Amino acid sequence: xxxxxxxxxxxxxxxxxxxxxxxxxxxxxxxxxxxxxxxxxxxxxxxxxxxxxxxxxxxxxxxxxxxxxxxxxxxxxxxxxxxxxxxxxxxxxxxxxxxxxxxxxxxxxxxxxxxxxxxxxxxxxxxxxxxxxxxxxxxxxxxxxxxxxxxxxxxxxxxxxxxxxxxxxxxxxxxxxxxxxxxxxxxxxxxxxxxxxxxxxxxxxxxxxxxxxxxxxxxxxxxxxxxxxxxxxxxxxxxxxxxxxxxxxxxxxxxxxxxxxxxxxxxxxxxxxxxxxxxxxxxxxxxxxxxxxxxxxxxxxxxxxxxxxxxxxxxxxxxxxxxxxxxxxxxxxxxxxxxxxxxxxxxxxxxxxxxxxxxxxxxxxxxxxxxxxxxxxxxxxxxxxxxxxxxxxxxxxxxxxxxxxxxxxxxxxxxxxxxxxxxxxxxxxxxxxxxxxxxxxxx
Length: 443
Hints:
By secondary structure, this protein is of the alpha/beta class. The chain has helices at about 5-15, 45-55, 60-65, 75-80, 85-90, 95, 100-110, 135-145, 150-160, 175-190, 210-215, 230-240, 280-290, 315-320, 330-340, 350-370, 370-375, 380-395, and strands spanning about 20-25, 30, 40-45, 70-75, 200, 220-225, 245-250, 260-270, 290-305, 345-350, 400-410.
């Protein structure tokens, strides 16, 4: 008699459309697939199948994994790196199967006991969103869902830099902390920061950019975030550094900032939360807040091809668990909005490979601090972040899915003056990275 593992593997290979180089183990003790597979998938109970049956796409499998009904041992990258796996799951290929294959798959699942009402989603899933998309109140709620889960947890995988965005890994930079220092310094040089300037850091996170700019470039900084926990943490770091007279951190929506003009604005990993409909509002607001010849550095993930038709279908893992209402837009949409607001776009630098390196470093940190992380936020949330970080790393390693750009834009001055140097040479001078503590801070 064929065990559950063989039947399940057969169904999934038909759905995905390619052989799966994984070992499958089931609740009945049966196993199937290559014995030496780098990744081993364990269906702990029949409920895992019901989750997939009721959500036959990436969301169903994510729910099974996050809840613990399904487990992955070994190398999670080996599982997620199956050619086009995430894309194929996102296409909901089960519903696109020929009728004969669909009946056969449903019969297999029913025969294995995957019957009954749909299981409740894991408690950390965000399902109901109140208010108009990208209204101030809804944006505040969605940001809180992602960031207000405990600063200690973020320390576990971000490390001492506490920077939650793509690092910069030029030659000679080999640690996560050095890459994040190099990225912050590169942004400061692109903004041409000088002592006495005012910098607005939109989506300031845990205060790393504000601290770097004030400590190394002598500027005064206002940082704004919608996350209460981030702001409290950043204020503590500012106080510890003795810079409370130079750095102000606020819980504030960027739309409510009214104390311009600023000489420069940094927006690092924030505009993904703005949304296509609000992008003109965002760029116009930042334009108004800048002094003439002021510079904006917008550091954001971009889609290689338009994803706007797929915004918020409610079925994606990212929307339910990671970035509710997040929108990854093509670079062209951002540049169009900037220029329609009056900015002159002066430079765009793609850092796709750099983000892949950063994400793999975060995965390594999370693995090394797995038990401590579970104690902080519980196993479901740690599983969620591992799945998200690993899948994202692979997404940036492929050339046709995701990328990330630093776009430098200038508010023209008198007679169109921009104050730009004639070359980029000063941006890429040798970076003197100080001796930095490595690894997450774990007490």
